[in-house]
Design brief:
Strand content: 25-35%
Protein name: Carbonate dehydratase
Organism: Thiobacter aerophilum
CATH topology: UDP N-Acetylglucosamine Acyltransferase, domain 1
Radius of gyration: 16 Å
InterPro entries: Gamma-CA (IPR052265), Hexapep (IPR001451), Trimer_LpxA-like_sf (IPR011004)
Number of helices: 1
Helix content: 10-25%
Distance between the termini: 15 Å
């Protein structure tokens, strides 16, 4: 469902993107080329700051927002999801937040008030808040990071982990093509 927010902002979705009919996109949301937005995802840009303004939620080209993901912004803050990025099932990305290109965010992970650098991996059930994850970092499953100082204990992404992330992104790019091909058959 595509709908306006109380300010009247309406999502803009590239023609080549696929948005599942059960997903909700509300407000100042921009969805790039070949993006996959899975069932029951909620992407909502509707809160304003004290001046009545808000930054957008931007989903970069070739990214995938999987089943049950929630992306929202507090008090007008924005969210930017880079290109070729995977946000896995039931994750929460709460702005202000910036996620780089070719990033993998694992199942049930939570990002809040942070940035995640290009090529990084945040595995399943992890929390990343109030910090800046440099490019190429690997955050293992169930780890909670609450400051830049805690990042010193995190190891760099290994090639096999990066390969897994790319395979997820590629699988979802193929889903966009397939669902767009059968779009009118539902």
């Amino acid at each position: 469902m595509i709908r306006k927010n109380p300010r009247g902002d309406l999502p803009v979705v590239a023609a080549s993107a696929f948005v599942d009919p059960t997903a909700i996109l509300c407000g100042k949301v921009f969805v790039g080329e070949n993006v996959f937005i899975g069932p029951y995802a909620v992407i909502r840009a509707d809160e304003v700051n004290e001046e009545g303004d808000m930054e957008p939620i931007i989903i970069g080209a070739n990214s995938n927002i999987q089943d049950g993901v929630v992306i929202h912004c507090k008090a007008g803050g924005g969210v930017i999801i880079g290109e070729g990025t995977s946000i896995a099932h039931r994750s929460i990305v709460h702005g202000p937040c910036r996620v780089g290109n070719n990033v993998f965010i694992g199942f049930n992970s939570v990002l809040f008030n942070c940035s995640v650098g290009d090529g990084s991996v945040v595995r399943h059930n992890s929390v990343v808040e109030n910090c800046s994850v440099p490019p190429g970092f690997y955050i293992p499953s169930t780890v909670n990071i609450h400051s830049d100082a805690e990042l010193a204990r995190i190891e760099r992404v290994s090639p096999d982990v990066a390969g897994f992330s790319e395979s997820v992104a590629e699988a979802n790019r193929e889903l966009v093509k397939g669902y767009n091909r059968i779009r009118n058959e539902f």
